[in-house]
Amino acid sequence: MGVFNFVKQGARQLFVARPDAQKHLIVYKHPDQNIPLGNRVTVDQDECAVFFKNGRVMGVLPPGQTPMDAQNIPFLAPLINAFTGGNALIAELFFVRMTPVRGVTFGGPAGDIVDPSTELQVPIRVFGEFAVQVFDPVRFVVGYTGQAAQASDNDAVLKWIKDKFLMSVTTVLTELCEIEQKSVRLVINNKERLASAFLQRAPDLNEIGLRITEIGRIDPNIPDEYMKQLRDAEKELADAKREVKKKHIAVGGAQADAAARQFELDQQFNQEYRNVHGLAGGNLGAYANARMAMGAGQGMAAHGVGGGVAGLAAQMAVGAGMGQMMNQQM
C-alpha cells in the first residue's frame, strides 16, 4: 500500500461523517457497518446521527464531533463486537438533515371525498409547493422503507414524502368541511385557510416524523364534470330550503292570525264576564237571556227587519222583553 493510500485509509478510519457530495440529502446512510472504536463521528449543525442495530434504534447523536467509545457514548456498549477484540462496533449509522427542505413541488390525484352538503362523492386533485422538515429522525428513518435509504436516494425520499402528503389531503379537507359546515367546493376556494390547515394537520406526515413548515402554493381542484354535479345539487338544495322557508312563513302568519283572534275572544269574554257581575248581578242565566235578546235585535236589523210598521213592532216587542227581564232581575 502506498503512502497516499495509507493516509487516505487512515483518515477514513479516523473520521466518520457525511461526505460533502451528499450534504444535500435528507437522509444519508453510512456505507460501512463496521466502525473502528476511537474514530470520531462528526455531525454537522443541520443534522443528527442515528445508530441502529438489527432494526432497533440504539441512540441519537446531536451536532458536534464525538469520539467513538462507550465512555463518551454509553449507548455504544451493546454495539461493540467482541470478535474484533473490542476494537470495533457493528451498527447502521444514518445522518438525517434537520433543517427545512424548501421548494418541494407536488401534484396529482388525492383521492375521493364525500361532500357533506350534497353527499356526493367527488375526486380531488391538488398541486402546489411546500417546505418540509424532519422533527423526529428516529421515526423518519424507521418509517422510510425499513432503514433502506441509499446514498443517492433523495428523489425517492421526496417522492415518498409527497405521496404521503397527498394521502393526507382528503383527511384535512373532510375535517375542514365538518368544522366550517361548508361544501367541499367552498372549502377548496379558500386557499389561505386550506394552507393553514395543512400546516396544523397532515397526519400522515406526522406519523413519519415530518412537519410541513410552509405552504408556498396550493391549488386543489375538482374535475369539471363533478363540479357541475355539485353546483346542480347545491341549487336543488337551495330551492328546497326556500320552499320550506316559505311554508314556515305561511304557517307563522296563520298562527299569528289565530293568536290575534284568540286574544279578541278573550277580551270579549272578559268584558262579558264583567257585565254579568255588574249589570245582571252575577246571574248568568239572566245575562244570557239579555244577550239573546240583543242578538235578536241585531239580527233583525241586519236582515232587513227594521223598516215599516212590522219591523217597528218587532223591535218594540224585543225592547219590552228586555226591559221586563232587567226589571225582574233588578
β-strand amount: 15-25%
Please tell me what the overall shape is. elongated
What average pLDDT do the residues reach?
77
From the N-terminal CA to the C-terminal CA, the straight-line distance is 146 Å
Largest sheet: 4 strands, antiparallel
Global Rg = 45 Å
Q: Give helix % range.
A: 40-55%
Structural class: alpha+beta
Strand order of the largest sheet: 2-9-5-6
Number of helices: 9
Kindly state the number of beta strands: 12
Low-confidence stretches: 1-12
Name the helix and strand elements from N-terminus to C-terminus, one letter apiece. Answer: HEEEEEEEEEEEHHHHHEHHH
Topology, element by element:
Layout: H1 3-14, E1 15-17, E2 27-29, E3 34-36, E4 40-43, E5 47-53, E6 56-61, E7 64-67, E8 88-90, E9 92-97, E10 101-114, E11 121-134, H2 137-143, H3 154-180, H4 184-189, H5 191-200, H6 203-206, E12 210-221, H7 224-278, H8 284-302, H9 308-329
Parallel strand pairs: 1-4
Antiparallel strand pairs: 2-9, 3-8, 4-7, 5-6, 5-9, 10-11, 11-12
Notes on the protein architecture:
There is one protein chain. With 330 residues, the protein is an alpha+beta fold. 49% of the residues lie in helices and 24% in strands. The chain has 9 helices and 12 strands. Strands 2-9-5-6 form a 4-stranded antiparallel sheet, with helices on one face. A hairpin with a 2-residue loop joins strand 5 and strand 6. Helix 8 packs antiparallel against helix 9. The longest helix has 55 residues. The N terminus is likely disordered.
